[in-house]
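Example record

One chain of 571 residues, shown exactly as stored in the release files.
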Amino acid sequence: MGYSRSLTMSTFRRLRHIGRALPVVLLLTSFSQSAERRADPQALQPILHYISSAWDTLTRSMTNCNTIVDPKLTESSVLYLPADFAVPAQVQELEQRCHVRVQQLPFVITQPGQAANQALPSPGLLYLEHPYVVPGGRFNEQYGWDSYFTVLGLLEDDRVDLARGMVENFFFEIEHYGTVLNANRTYYLSRSQPPFLTSMILAVYDADKARGHEDRAWLEKAYGFASKDYELWIHDPHLAGTTGLSRYFDFGTGPAPESLKDEAGVHRKVANYFLLHPESRSYVMDSTGDSSPVVGFQFGVQICDVATTMAKPECETTRKISLSPDYYKGDRSMRESGFDISFRFGPYGAATHHYAPVCLNSLLYKTEKDLQQMAEMLGRKDDAPKWQHRAEERRQLVQRYLWDPVRRLFFDYNFSTGERSSYEYITTLYPLWAGLATKEQAEGVVHNLGILEQPGGLVMSTHDPGVQWDYPYGWAPTQIVAIKGLRRYGFNDDANRVSYKFISTIAENFRHDGTIREKYNLVTRSSESQIAAGYNQNVIGFGWTNAAFLIFLHDLPPEMVEKLAREQGTH
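Predicted structure tokens for this chain:
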């Protein structure tokens, strides 16, 4: 066939699954049936080849010149090593061969937020020990929550060693950079991302065990790092007021550096929105005549009589406004959530740090249950009850604050106002994935599934404010969480239907342009995106979407896999 060996192996596994779906007469290419009715077992090979090749294309390491490049910035990047870390030989070789500037951080980082507002000479990449898969496009680093879904895809494709190395990179981040980072760039030292670490650890451990290599020493090490990283979320400033739940919170101040190039103009649009919506004007400050330093951007505003706009005397003197520090804190915290940009936490996510989110607290419940399981596996009899108790406490708080018994959905809770949100969002399915929903609650969520379900899968929300993490878009990570949540509670017919919609959308668009994207318009089943604020690309790659295709393909019943192969083969 002319493909690489890695392609042959991964394709074989997928086509073997398809083979189970096909009647023997089809596999023997019976000529008694028409071509239109015959499912070609080779039909999915092009997209599987794309995915298998993408793992290699998207892999970065400290021996690769492309690793250092940062498409989000205009200036050249620096490779930083921890302050107390000797320069490895591979970095010395990289420095010479790729003409990379290599420096050590000017201080030792021992805890999250310590380096949030520390000035560095230049932005740069943070060293990691092992090769890792990047999402693609402008995202040329190892991301915190992207990596969980990528790891699942790698495990589906028998790339266990690469997946394990990525998890060990997070151990390195915890030890040398204070926490699992948003990603390994210096401007991400101020925040983490949704905590999937224990889920990654157990996935890799189980994959190793399935290969006959049960590494309990590795699990012991992993348990220590995961326990340490968990502490970030259960102490101030990551506590959601007095609720006992947790929140997203970025330690930094001012505009997020990664937004200044690709998201040019977004802050002007945000300021304009707040001015036109009186209920949001607290995020705008009148800085006219104020001699104190302005945080972030400053804009000029002039009020004129519409009928005489061109008559300068009818216009008042231009005033200067700026976005408030609280807005920038919310914007940064929204980026820690991963949902940037959405109106879920208020317009443009400005109030993110005022919410106890469904997603985060579901993930922390899952983390606590995972740590309980790991403690039991390791014989830590004193630790297991502690984790069990913490998980049960969080479950009760989620039931109290985040479950709406009338709407029969989980919602985020604004602890500053004392009100539960009414913003319908796909994260209502996270408690099913985590296993903290009751049977009745799961039934309620599934009963309401139709508010999110569209021709291409589950959209992010029922609201269309023109940003990428809301209607009409759908993303692989939330599709994976939602589908696995449905399956966990036995709603397999719903899971099959929705996952087929999403996987067939990926396949249909792949037939059109030969690429896999970071997100899709699930109403039109297209990769077209019209984003009013934020970066406006639909990035090609793409790590977590590749993973979703493999995961859903593996879990679909044989007859639906056959249908997908047939659709691919007839176009």
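Notes: The mean pLDDT is 90.
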